[in-house]
Amino acid sequence: MIITQTPYRISLFGGGTDYPDWYFRNGGQVLSTTIDKYVYISCRYLPPFFEHKLRLVYSEVETCDSASQLKHPAVREILKHLGLVNGLEIHYDGDLPSRSGMGSSSAFSVGLLKALYCLKNQKIGREQLANEAIYVEQNKIGESVGSQDQVNAAYGGFNNIQFRDDGTIGVIPVDVSDKRKKELNDQLMLFYTGIMRTAETVSSTYATDTVKKTVQLKRIYQIVDEAIETIASQNSLDGVGRLLHESWVEKRKLSDMVSNTRVDDIYQSALKAGALGGKLCGAGGGGMMLLFVPEKYQSRVRRALSSLLYVPFRFSETGSQIIFSNKAVRPPEVEFNRSPTIKKFIELEDI
Question: Could you give the C-alpha distances from 101 to 98, 257, 290, 345, in angstroms and in order?
């Protein structure tokens, strides 16, 4: 059995410029960090004593004979991509709910790819891991998703991720002390709005026609540099909060689906209680809301948003990793096509 642990991420600045439709023409960049909340994927070769040849456990349980029969698009396409069509059991668990804007879909894809490569006794580096997850999600599944989540999940850490117009991706760790990162972390608060949405549904309203959003996306791109400069300086981090607010204002202009009345009410309540800025994590529409709140106002903000679930978190430096490996390669004599003896055994047991 193989078990992988893959981090969720918080995208602080630059979201929207990591979509291929934009960065292949203009370049893009984000400032983001992984956090100490994780997706766990376990997989093993399935013993040949079952009626099914493939078992997948997530919010649903799927049992079938081949990958092509799976409803789950990421698992179906990743198995086909790696040439694994059956003979597997895969389980998924996560610290945070899906569709919350924390990069859970890409963390799942990255974690599953890493687990399956390990199961096949093959190594995969961070760059290849990120690129294959991007390829599967954007090309095989055909989702309108960006490219930052897969990179975050594969690499981990607090990074400026740059998307170049030639398609290459650079991952540049932000050069600040652990003390400064802790100071920033201490002033960020995360709340679950309870509004579930599919990122692809929201992002598809602005990610495939970015020419019309040029003014907004260029400003969102510029804010990344300003945020890095503020964090790297010795100045107050309050400027990060104000830049979060400006970036959120610009992002709301990308589509009517980025925000809604409920989200706007939550955000205004937080500002009145002392938050300097914030944003919805991910594409928008719901999920988690990130707020920059000076420590002296945090108790007030928690009271103002008492109807929401507060989610404490810390920055994490690690990307997807193997946390358990007990690789038992399936012996050649135990192929998954059942022998007559096994079939007879199953029939007798059923009786």
Answer: 8, 14, 10, 48
Q: Residues 49-101: pLDDT tens digits?
A: 899 999 999 999 999 999 999 999 999 999 999 999 999 999 999 999 988 89
Q: How far apart are the first and last CA of the chain?
A: 31
What does the pLDDT look like over 98-125, one tens digit per residue? Answer: 888 999 999 999 999 999 999 999 999 9
Question: What's the pLDDT at 339?
Answer: 42
Write the pLDDT tens digit of every residue in 164-201. 999 999 999 999 999 999 999 999 999 999 887 565 56
How far lies 319's CA from each of 53, 147, 149, in Å? 31, 15, 11
Contact 238, 277 (CB under 8 A): no
Secondary structure, 3-state, the chain: CEEEEEEEEEEEECCCCCCHHHHHHHCEEEEEEEEEEEEEEEEEECCCCCCCCEEEECCCEEEECCHHHCCCHHHHHHHHHHCCCCCEEEEEEECCCCCCCCCHHHHHHHHHHHHHHHHCCCCCCHHHHHHHHHHHHHHHCCCCCCCHHHHHHHHCCEEEEEECCCCCEEEEECCCCHHHHHHHHCCEEEEECCCCCCHHHHHCCCCCCHHHHHHHHHHHHHHHHHHHHHHHCCCCCHHHHHHHHHHHHHHHCCCCCCCCHHHHHHHHHHHHHCCCEEEECCCCCCCEEEEECCHHHHHHHHHHCCCCEECCCCEECCCCEEEEECCCCCCCCCCCCCCHHHHHHHHHHHC
If one looks up domain 2-324 in CATH, what number appears?
3.30.230.120
C-alpha–C-alpha distance, residues 118 and 43, integer Å: 10
Q: Are strands 28-45 and 88-94 parallel, antiparallel or unpaired?
A: antiparallel
